Amino acid sequence: MPTRIRESRGQEMALTAAVAVVIVLLSLLPMLRLIEEIVAPGGTLSTVAAEAGLRSPTTWIATWHTLVVGIGGTLLAVLSGTLVAVLVSLTDIRGRSALVLCYVLPLMTAPQVTALAWLQLFGPASPFLKLFGAAPPLGTKNPLYSTSGIILLLGVQYGPLVFLLVRAGLRKLPRELVEAARAGGAGWFTVLVTIVLPLMTPSIMAAAALAFVSCIGNFGIPAFLGIPANYLVLPTLIYQKLAGGGPAVLGETAFLSVLIGVIAMAGILAQEMMSRRRDYRISSTSLPAEPYELGRWRPVVQAGMWLLIVLVLFLPLFGLVLTSLVPGYGIALTAKTVTLDNYRFVLFEHDAANRAFFNSFWLSIAAAFFAVVVAVPVGYLIAWGKQRWVRLLNLAVELPYALPGVVLAIASLLLFLRPIPLTGIQLYNTVWIILYAYLARFLVLALRPTISGYHQIDRALEEAAQVAGAGLFTRMRTIIFPLVAPGAIAGGLLIFMTALSELTVSALLWSSGSETIGVVMFSFEQGGDSNYAAAMSVITVAVTFLLMLVTNLLAPYLPSGVLPWRD
Amino acid sequence: MARLSLDHVTKSFADFDAVKNVSIDVADGEFLAVLGPSGCGKTTLLRLVAGFEKVTSGEIRIGNNVVSNSGGSVAPEKRRVGIVFQNYALWPHMTVAENIGYSLRVAKLDKAVARQKVEDALALVNLQGLGERRPANLSGGQRQRVALARCLVAAPSLVLFDEPLANLDVHLRASIEDEFAAFHKRTGTTMIYITHDQSEAIALADRIAVMDHGRLAQLATPRELYHEPANEMVASFISQGMLLPADVLTAEDGGHCKVRVLGTELVVRCRPGERPRAGAKICCRSADLGVSPDGPGLNGLIKRVVYKGGGARIEFAPVAGPDLTLHFEQPDPVRLESGAQARLRIQSGWLIPAAAAEQSLGA
Ligand SMILES: Nc1ncnc2c1ncn2[C@@H]1O[C@H](COP(=O)(O)OP(=O)(O)O)[C@@H](O)[C@H]1O
Ligand SMILES: [Mg+2]
Q: What integer best gives the mean pLDDT of chain A?
């Protein structure tokens, strides 16, 4: 029998336990609670809620709408994102980083801001169209209040998402594969169709799945464009039910949110199956292919790209700014009418807007700070942990973000509707429930860059500290944190930008006194005060862009791919 | 300084044994090199000693303490070993002095004392005045010396090197090799030095452990490895020894016996107690071969002549064993040409002990 050895691994166990507790609280608990509500509401097994949901025609109409705009938006996003990725990655187009930056920016603005901006561009009240006297007469329906309007904006919002994934894939394409085909006599277009795109199938599939999940879970765009036309998708249906019925309809909405979750999962599974069907593995690594010379087509292609960018970025933003500068609905912008009153009103006069700025700022800061602090130890266990089960952690942390936001919001409501057992603390109807949901949902945004940071660090750096006698906590503080900090902090800044104008989760969780910027913007727009909504949007967009500039300072210390807008 | 013993140590990853039943005793103050082809388990062995991996079975002792067995494993930070990593593993966010002083800081040593120790360590590796630099602003050789200073400042009981020279150019290697040797002499620390480069191992080590596919193939002094390899792997791995089939004709007498190789008889060195047997192997070095135009020898064909400067390496296929390749050096003026017939004499050799004999010896 070997002698027992005192291992003194207390710190490791403490860390693992703490991480496990955080993950269980933030990821597993809400999901389990949601499932419990569907399977056994009130503690007894029952299918009443599910049956009621299945029998209601509104469920099926909204599901159908969700699928239509989800698939439509995904197709548009995949087509546009892939096309832009191919042009940017494989040709000798000029001004690449500027193009990438501008094309990716819509991803950094909240969907409801995109929606608002486009609405301001085309409606009868459009200050932009009025500049040319081209606005349709007042009372005309805005063409974006339609299925195709929703699909168009979803495509615009998530095209960049597809772009990023496909571009990452194209960068790994070894040039030998392209050159071998060229040497075999294939022209550039043939190479693209027969070699490049087939090899990119996994990236494109993964991008499509991600875009699909984002589209069906999106709340801002169908809320701004669909509700006025009474075109409801599942997230907006849930919102309307909750807004009308309160906690009484929670069981019903739980069913609907699981339905969205199931549709999202189906999308991800379909992608998995399609990618498995063939072997697309690229074994070698080498330099990327020489860019294709566009020759005399270059100016044309470049002009086309910039036209696209003007259409999807500059015009909408311009429309938004114009709207924020006119005093009221349908007034044309002239030297006489131009005013900053809207800004003054939302910043200093309107109580709810004031509170919203305050709430959103501190919620975003708290979520970002917490995520950075937690991401370092969680990333440590996931990236460097020896136990296999910790890899499941990663899955658990991804879940609240991978699933549409309404799913998490409903789960949080269910979890905190009653006071927390034993303590009696009430989170429901307070700002804290929003904080909880933000922590759960956005943790993964800081975790991903942290993990890629870990993968870039030589483990020997930690081992060297270990043989120097440093215990786990000392190593964390003196060696590990300084090394992974840039990635974690960049992730924190991404969280701040995302949370600042977040709407999907807070629309379902807010209460009087705990409004967020997104919620107040939404209620301004619903009440017809687009000018105020536009002013708030411009402020958040400006803050976001400023933060992007600040984050750029970190860029030299970051693993590539952490900052989506940097090429 | 301490003794290190590995006692029947095995390490498995899933169902693959990276280290198999290895027993090594390293004396206090000894310089042991671990030598073997890439992938044979050297790094795994070192990580077991350091505590980064846990043994699957067997036991490791440092000094009088059991540090690893199947019952548990002392954490690396409690073992008081120093490691010099192949890629140095200097912390980029700290200065040279902070890197070196890290273990003192962790041990909460008085600041002034720690500063003095860091200064001393810098002086020891000839890096005075570079304490405030960042590792990124140092050359490869300087980084290696910082890594050395960092592991020595805490006066570890045992210093482990994992291919410390692999990333340096040839010039630097020689000079740092000298420094390591001088250093070992001065401090008398027990050192385990991992390398795949035999000349490095032979130049530095008191004893060399040759590893092969996770097993310890032989543990001996450099001289013994060269002249008396315990098995075919060591024979062919060290200095490209040639293996020839042989039948042992007489029992050992005075450290020699008579064998028949490729139809000719000759006397080779052997272990005590060898008896006549068939199917044996002898190991020859190129220095054991010579051209013998007239006397007894092997007839054969010159397959290749590679000029090496000052002489040539000649590859020769004997008629009696056309699949074998013998090679030897011939100084200028080289007269042999490829395709020509030649006659070769084996002057000496070593009879590889029978596999069973080796096992009984190793146990
Ligand atoms: N953590 C590990 N998991 C699985 N296999 C490993 C691990 N570490 C090393 N190995 C395997 O063990 C063998 C020996 O590796 P190593 O000790 O690094 O060899 P060396 O340092 O001699 O080149 C290799 O085949 C390697 O693939
Ligand atoms: Mg190695």
A: 86
SS3 readout for A254-296: HHHHHHHHHHHHHHHHHHHHHHHCCCCCCCCCCCECCCECCHH
DSSP per residue, A27-56: IIHHHHHHHHHHHSGGGS---HHHHHHHH-
% of chain A surpassing 90 pLDDT: 33
Assess whether pLDDT exceeds 90 at residue B2.
no
The domain ranges of chain B are: 4-227, 241-362
Q: Which residues from chain A sit within 8 angstroms of residue B52, using beta carbons? A: 463, 466
B210 in contact with ligand 1, CB cutoff 6 A: no
Q: Is the CB of B22 under 6 A from ligand 1?
A: no
Assess if CATH 2.60.40.1760 describes domain B4-227: no
Nearest CA to ligand 1 atom 5: B13
E strand or H helix at B19, and its extent? Answer: strand B16-26
CATH number belonging to the domain at B241-362, selected among 3.30.479.10, 1.10.3720.10, 2.40.50.140, 3.30.559.10: 2.40.50.140
| Distance in angstroms (rounded) separating the CA atoms of residues A110 and A499 | 9
Nearest CA in chain B to A462: B89
CA distance A73 to A480: 42
**Helix residue ranges per DSSP H, chain B:** 42-50, 96-106, 111-124, 140-152, 170-187, 198-204, 222-227, 232-237, 355-362
Amino acid A541 reads V
Which pLDDT does position B362 carry in this prediction? 41
Q: How far is CA A454 from CA A71, A173, A400, A449, B89, in A?
A: 36, 24, 23, 9, 14
For the Cβ of B15 lying below 6 angstroms from any atom of ligand 1, the answer is no
Ligand 1 atom 24: residue of nearest CA: B39
Name the closest-CA residue to atom 18, ligand 1. B43
**Strands of B81-84's sheet in order across:** B81-84, B158-162, B190-195, B31-35, B207-212, B215-220
- Are the Cβ atoms of A460 and B85 closer than 8 angstroms? yes
Lowest mean pLDDT among A353-367, B169-183, B224-238: B169-183
B131, B95 Cβ separation under 8 angstroms: yes
The CA B48 to ligand 1 mean position distance, Å, reads 12
Looking at residue A185, what is its pLDDT? 67
Question: Architecture of domain A62-323 in CATH?
Answer: Orthogonal Bundle (1.10)
d(CA A366, CA B178): 56
CA-nearest residue of chain A to B7?
A2
Separation of CA B225 and ligand 2 centre (Å): 22
- Looking at residue A181, what is its pLDDT? 73
B92 touches chain A (CB under 8 A): yes
What secondary structure letter does DSSP report for A412? H
**Interface predicted TM-score (ipTM):** 0.76
Contact A469 B77 (CB under 8 A): yes
CA A392-A396-A399 angle, to 5 degrees, is: 135
Contact partners, residue B153, CB within 8 Å, separation at least 6: B100, B101, B103, B104, B117, B118, B121
Q: Is the pLDDT of residue A183 over 80?
A: no
Our answer on whether the CB atom of B214 is closer than 6 Å to any ligand 1 atom is: no
Q: Which of chain A's residues have a Cβ under 8 Å away from the Cβ of B85?
A: 460, 463-464
**pLDDT band at residue B360 using 50, 70 and 90 as cut-offs:** very low
Residue B62 sits at the chain A interface (C-beta within 8 Å): no
Confidence grade of residue A45 (pLDDT, cut at 50, 70, 90): low
Encoded tokens for A557: 């210390």
Model confidence at B332: pLDDT above 60: yes
Pick from A33-47, A134-148, A505-519, B269-283: least confident: A33-47
Distance of CA B166 to the CA centre of its chain: 14
Segment B208-212 mean pLDDT: 95
Ligand 1 atom, smallest distance to B45 CA: 17
